[in-house]
């Protein structure tokens, strides 16, 4: 194999951090494709490449914007790894969805894994994850995946957890907005994948466009954007109670 292609959608950066940490275990030149704000040129890989696809889970699915972009990426019998990252609730049909997208586009998935990171909205949930135990499991997963890809002759279909038809994703009513710390630097305006933050008043958020990805919060140098209000506080308490039990990574391999 010639190159390792990291293809990820990562608004709040957790998915990027996990996939980049995993990539250090693979002795190939790395080419990153951050598709969070779209792609400028078509991505087409060959049989000699090795691809790792990664996405966060939003309400049990791959974010719609991410799915649309992933569907444009083409392989040619290219071995691939599928990864999703979620905030300790469940990944539902997201792993299956991303596996199906890659398979239909000429990729040959050898493995898939669902991993846990701090929740992007309710940040007290899974706050310290991925922890050392998670990192060890990610390391083992990617090493085994690379070995399977090197062996070649991928004839089996990868089986993962999930259902079809995929679950209907629910809408997230909580939207972030700016605080008094905002100095109108414009970082969030430029970074928002759906252009939901007006340049003339970046404290505001277009609630119709925003899909609560938390990218603006993750990238704001002033820490001036956040989820807030009584609805958020009530939801945070209820959500934390529902997901207090620790979830562990789940991995799947072709054999």
Could you tell me the radius of gyration in angstroms? 18 Å
- Total count of domains: 2
In the CATH scheme, the class of the largest domain would be Alpha Beta
Helix content: 25-40%
Q: Name the structural class.
A: alpha/beta
For the largest sheet, list the strands in their spatial order.
2-1-3-4-5-8
Tally of alpha and pi helices = 7
Query: Mind telling me which CATH architecture of the largest domain this is?
Result: 3-Layer(aba) Sandwich
SSE pattern, N- to C-terminal? EHEEHEHEHEHHEHE
The biggest beta sheet reads:
6 strands, mixed
Look at the structure and give the mean pLDDT: 96
Number of strands: 8
SSE diagram, text form:
Elements: E1 4-8, H1 14-23, E2 30-34, E3 50-56, H2 64-70, E4 78-86, H3 94-104, E5 107-116, H4 132-151, E6 177-178, H5 187-191, H6 215-219, E7 225-226, H7 230-242, E8 250-253
Parallel strand pairs: 1-2, 1-3, 3-4, 4-5
Antiparallel strand pairs: 5-8, 6-7
